[in-house]
Amino acid sequence: MIGSLRGRLVAKAPPQVLVEVGGVGYEVEAPMSTFYALPIVGHDVTLLTHFVVREDAQILYGFATEDERRLFRSLIKVTGVGPRIALAILSGVSVDAFAQCVQGQDVTALTKIPGVGRKTAERLIVEMRDRLAALAEPGGLVPQTPRSAVEGEAFAALVALGYKPAEATRLLRAAEPGAVSTEELIRRALQGAARESA
Fold first, then answer.
1. CA-to-CA distance for 57 and 182, rounded, in angstroms?
2. Cβ distance 3 to 26 under 8 Å?
3. Which of 95, 191, 189 is nearest to 147 (CA)?
4. How far apart are the C-alpha atoms of 94 and 106, rounded to whole Å?
5. Beta strands in 54-156 (DSSP E)
6. CB 137: neighbour CB atoms within 10 A?
7. Domain 4-63 architecture
8. What fold does the segment set 149-197 form as a domain?
9. pLDDT tens across 51-100, in order?
10. How many CB atoms lie within 10 A of CB 184?
11. What's the gap between Cα 1 and its chain centre?
12. Which pTM was predicted?
């Protein structure tokens, strides 16, 4: 089992990354959430990995964080969800946002992810609910202080506006959520983004 790779980033073309380790180039498939965290080509990179062996292929999947890998490993155990759909989910929503969709039984939000139909979304909610609870230990993928419904809605809106999940999360944290409405939180986040680009 290959648990991680550390080497030089040779190429990146979603969903594939090429990492050279000791003169050997490893082709790794990664979600967009990991791509956002990658350095520029030529720099060193460390990826946590999950190795899948099939009859027709051996595929290495890479992740920027342990939470991403934990969620991926849990997702591929869901009936009808393979690595491709698991990557699509991680590319479409953050780990925290996915946990909130499941906890809030938000089928509509999940069906907005490419490759996830209504039946798959319903199955994810049923099968992942208990798994998320089991993973809610220290170091698990459910945050100790879950994002509120307002923050979840604001996060989804920012992503819909074209912000990367990592950027949306950062902008919301900087916006000091507190007890405000979704609209106010989005306004604060956009004001913060405007100040950064000024």
1. 45
2. no
3. 95
4. 15
5. 58-63
6. 10
7. Beta Barrel (2.40)
8. Helicase, Ruva Protein; domain 3 (1.10.8)
9. 988 888 899 999 999 989 999 999 999 988 999 999 999 988 888 888 88
10. 15
11. 23
12. 0.67
